[in-house]
């Protein structure tokens, strides 16, 4: 007859394996909260914009919005977070067009009107494809990459492959593994995680200046992760902390807009006198 201790051990092992297997196959349900839109949906914003669809080679489709301003200083390529769609995220265009920049934002596959199966490799490839498309319209020294939350690691990856003017990381993680491991430290996460986005590694080969904006009271992605990134590359990174800021309320702080203005400001060229 099997002892109660052995029975309990078997039950615990079964539960543990169940957690690991469930996480491996359904982790996308934990990481992503997409808002899906019909192809007929019409975006509405207070600024003039263009909606663009990109047909990818593998059959996927990337839907994007593109705001332009007169006498632009360049373009901000904004990589959004892991929730909803550009329907709502598009409101952040005002923070950049008001600073004299064109603004470009895409929805990842499975978000909004974008279609196709999503994976880390495909997200990187889609973002790189868009970046190369932007280089047909702007010189690289006029392109700024902006990554917010989950999108920060993607922005860092694209910056490492190219030569943008600047990389801005808003509430970034040291690595996606580092963040998830806080909650699933008891699992063999290295073998289970399908999105091992290594912001720390990508910044090694990023040649442009890097600005990090992070709230000190962020409970989702701790401020300490930005401090760790800064410590790795002190000469490359400028860390802007927003005292008391949490993960989703940075625009409630006047300092956030002061930082954006300071970082995005371009001094006018001085005309040489003959």
Helix count, DSSP H or I runs of 4 or more residues: 10
Distance between the termini: 101 Å
| Alpha-beta classification | alpha/beta
What value does the Rg take, in angstroms?
21 Å
Secondary-structure element string: HEEEEEHHEHEHEHHHEHEH
Percent of residues in beta strands:
15-25%
Overall geometry comes to globular
Largest sheet: 8 strands, mixed
State the helical fraction: 25-40%
Low-confidence stretches: none
Describe the structure concisely for a colleague.
The chain is of the alpha/beta class.
Task: Give your account of this protein's structure.
It is a single chain. The protein is built from ten helices and ten strands. It is α/β, with parallel strands linked by helices and 274 residues long. The strands form two sheets. Strands 2-3-6-4-7-8-9-10 form an eight-stranded mixed beta sheet, with helices on both faces. It has a two-stranded parallel sheet with strand order 1-5. The radius of gyration is 21 Å and the shape is globular. The relative contact order is 0.11. The mean pLDDT is 90.
Describe the secondary structure blueprint for this structure.
Layout: H1 4-31, E1 33-34, E2 49-55, E3 61-67, E4 75-79, E5 83-84, H2 86-89, H3 94-97, E6 102-106, H4 120-134, E7 143-148, H5 150-161, E8 166-170, H6 176-181, H7 189-192, H8 199-202, E9 210-215, H9 223-232, E10 237-242, H10 254-264
Parallel strand pairs: 1-5, 4-6, 4-7, 7-8, 8-9, 9-10
Antiparallel strand pairs: 2-3, 3-6
Helix pairs in contact: 4-5
Overview features:
single chain, 274 residues, eight-stranded mixed sheet, two-stranded parallel sheet, 36% helix
């Amino acid at each position: 007859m099997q002892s109660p201790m052995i029975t309990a051990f078997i039950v615990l092992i079964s539960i543990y394996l169940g957690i690991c297997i469930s996480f491996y196959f359904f982790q996308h349900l934990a990481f992503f909260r997409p808002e899906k839109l019909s192809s007929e949906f019409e975006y509405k914003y207070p600024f003039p914009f263009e909606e663009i669809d990109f047909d990818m080679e593998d059959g996927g489709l990337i839907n994007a919005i593109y705001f332009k301003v007169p006498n632009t200083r360049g373009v901000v390529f904004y990589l959004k977070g892991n929730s909803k769609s550009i329907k709502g995220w598009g409101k952040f265009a005002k923070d950049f067009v008001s600073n004299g920049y064109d603004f470009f934002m895409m929805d990842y596959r499975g978000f909004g009107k974008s279609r196709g199966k999503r994976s880390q490799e495909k997200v990187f490839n889609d973002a790189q494809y868009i970046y190369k498309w932007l280089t047909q319209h702007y010189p690289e020294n006029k392109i700024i990459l902006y990554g917010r939350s989950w999108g920060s690691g993607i922005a860092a990856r694209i910056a490492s492959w190219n030569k943008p003017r600047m990389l801005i990381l808003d509430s970034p993680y040291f690595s996606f593994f580092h963040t998830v491991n806080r909650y699933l430290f008891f699992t063999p996460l290295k073998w289970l995680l399908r999105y091992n986005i290594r912001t720390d590694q990508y910044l090694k080969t990023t040649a442009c200046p890097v600005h990090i904006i992070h709230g000190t009271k962020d409970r989702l992605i701790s401020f300490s992760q930005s401090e760790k990134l800064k410590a790795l590359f002190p000469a490359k990174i400028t860390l802007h902390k927003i005292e008391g800021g949490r993960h989703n309320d940075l625009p409630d702080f006047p300092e956030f807009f002061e930082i954006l203005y300071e970082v995005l400001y371009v001094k006018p060229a001085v005309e040489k006198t003959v």
